[in-house]
Each structure stands twice: as C-alpha cells, then as structure tokens.
Amino acid sequence: MATAESDVVRVSIHTRRPVSDVWSALAEPHSLGRWFGELDQPWQEGRSGRIEFGDGDFFEVTTNEIVERRLICFEWRFLGLGPLSRIRWTITDLDGQARVMVEDGDPTRTKAEADQLVEGWTDFFQRLGSYLETGQSTRYEWRDEIDGSVDLPAGSSDPLEAETLLRWLPVASDGFRPSWFFIVDEEGPRRFPITDWNPGAEKLTFAVNVAAGAPSTFCTVTVEPVGAGTGVRRLRFEHTNWRGLGIPDRKALLLRRRFIMSWITALEHARHHASAQ
Questions:
Q1: Does 140 fall in a domain?
Q2: Residue 244: DSSP 8-state
Q3: 66: which of 115, 204, 242, 263 lies 20 to 30 Å off by Cα?
Q4: Which residues form the Activator of Hsp90 ATPase homologue 1/2-like C-terminal domain (predicted)?
C-alpha cells in the first residue's frame, strides 16, 4: 500500500516474518545495513547520528521515540542540509506475521516530490521484504546521480545571479565564462573542465569532465520558492551520469564521494552568504 499527499507519504508492506524479525531488521544497526543503510550507532531517544549508504550519500538523523517491537520515530536531513523530514516506522502484528509502515512527513514538499518519495520508499521496503525472506543483503550498490538542496532565507539575493553565483559555487572563469570546477579536500586541490555552461534566471546547466577520455557528467542547479508567501527559496542541484563514465566502479565512486563533499560545501557557502545579507 502506498499513498502520497503533499505533506505525508505512507508506504507499507506485509511480510510473513514475525514481528521479532522485522524489529531486528529495523532496530539493529547490522541488520539495517543489510537492506537500507549503515547506522553509525544504535537507535536511542534523543541521540543524533548518521545513516550512510556507502556511496557518499547520507542522512543526519535524530531519534525522537522508540517503542520496543512497535515503532521508531526520527527526523533526518539529506546530506545534513536538506529539508527536515519526520519519519515514523511502525510494525503491526498480524497473527504471527507483520505489516511495516513508513510515514514520511514534510510540509514543504510538492506533490511531485511526494510521488518520488513513494517510489523511493516502495523500493526500500521491497528490499526489506526480500531481506526478511532470504537473509541476504539487498542493499543497492550506488546511485548514478548526486543531488541535494538547501533553503535560503527570505530577502537574500538570487543565488544564480552571476556575481552571487561565484561566491558559493566552486568554479573559475577563463575570462569569458566559467571553465573549471574545483575540489579542495584532504587529497588536495584539483580542477575539472567545464563545458556547455548555460545560465538562466531559475536554472543553470553545465557539464563537467571528471575523468580524462570519459563522457561528461551533467549538472543542473535550480532555485524555487518554498511555500506560498514565505520568501524562502530552495537551492537545489543534481549531478548525473556517474555510472556512465566507462571507468572502474571503484574510481567512479571515489570521484563521486569527492564531488559530494564539494557540493555540500558549496551549499553551506550559499546558505552562509544568504544569511549574512
């Protein structure tokens, strides 16, 4: 069963496994890592932690409520920057079998975003069901895209305006238009060629060559209002084609992780610049 309203997404599955098995799959970090993601420490009310997915993606998580063998409630933000979502996992006993439901609430999301979440949670719960039946890991390997967002306060300047853009996006110009995307991390600074730079009032697109001789990756940056009359805007990016590079997965994943950290830093800079105005 799945439903999508603009503020709450609900997805559930029925499994033949007993409540005790389902509870272990949700509550024990080792079991959770077999179908979902790696929880860095056990669930505990009031504790903050992180769920990582092995490809650089993660959620920062705060546990709100735990009822043994019945429910886990928590809040999370994707990459530690995205909109706050309130998640509720509930287990219901069905005469020795069980139903598992997730309720994912965020009053700022659009109907299209809710529909995407239905697809995402349906996939995760199918993986949960398969794990419960087989005991084998059903985790996905890694995503083709990197994406994320941050909300900017009302009254801040347009983040895609040329002068503002260069304050937060790690790009450099050749004198005419941006030609390089920069990463600076523990492995040192590195620059990557940019092509097809196409700015606009509400959307910026460009390509980045992340590996010599490989196809380009593609970036889209957008800004859109959050809610009616709030003045808050959501800065969002998507960086795709990581599986289409034609290089070994290990190398692609290393690059993907480095770019995720660069994008996180860029969003933090955008938020800091907007808040300082």
A1: no
A2: G
A3: 115
A4: 18-133
